[in-house]
Amino acid sequence: MRFRFTQSAIDTAQARRELLDAGAGGYVSFEGWVRDHNEGLEVTRLEYEAFQELAVKEGERIVADALRRFPVQHALCIHRLGTLAVSDMAVWVGVSSAHRGEAFDACRFIIDEVKHRVPIWKKEHYRGGDSGWVNCERCAAAPNHVHHDEPASLTTHE
Amino acid sequence: MQLKIQYYALMREQAGRSEEWLESSAVTPADLYGELIDRYGFTLAREQLKVAINSEFSDWSRRLCAGDAVVFIPPVAGG
Questions:
Q1: Cross-strand partners of A29
Q2: Structural domains counted in chain B
Q3: B43 vs A73: CA distance, rounded Å
Q4: pTM for the whole structure
Q5: Domain around B61
Q6: Predicted-complex ipTM score
Q7: Which residues from chain A sit within 8 angstroms of residue B43, using beta carbons?
Q8: What is the CATH classification number for the domain harbouring B13?
């Protein structure tokens, strides 16, 4: 499986091992973390849920697309579900490749597509007790609202 | 005909349930969403949603069959 969910902390050491390949000269990974603020509100925790049957299929299609588009060796995406605290890792993407350029491109492609296409939702809980489903509630009133990307942690090993 | 509807995220909260079997005369998922707005007061417009039938994305105009499992997909927010 090249896309999967976990209810517990993502084991990045294990995930990285799944990408090892004698033909790879390096790997690129992306980690999405829970940020303590969004659109001016102080976030205390997040809840993620997914329509898992379809989400796994769509996630697998995205990784397969990446492997077709970019000449890379292996790619894997793991998304966490359930309740997450600030600074917890929500998503991990890793790509190994003969050369770094394609690995960066494929990693970026996978995280961008996952954010746009996979049926996963997050509910933010704010200081003071309010909460809201991201992209569903305030956007119902302001459909052209711009969303900011999650913070990124990019690492390369060559 | 009987249809199985599953709800996620904001729609699960607004419907007050995760899934149910409903007797419906809806011909398409678009008709069905209209019925469910009347029943549950969903705040998301149909244009903001996608729809899946039997765990695969579907057109809004596809003809529903008895026993179909229908999921309306609110704007996603993974990552």
A1: A94, A155
A2: 1
A3: 44
A4: 0.90
A5: 2-73
A6: 0.96
A7: 137, 140
A8: 3.10.20.30
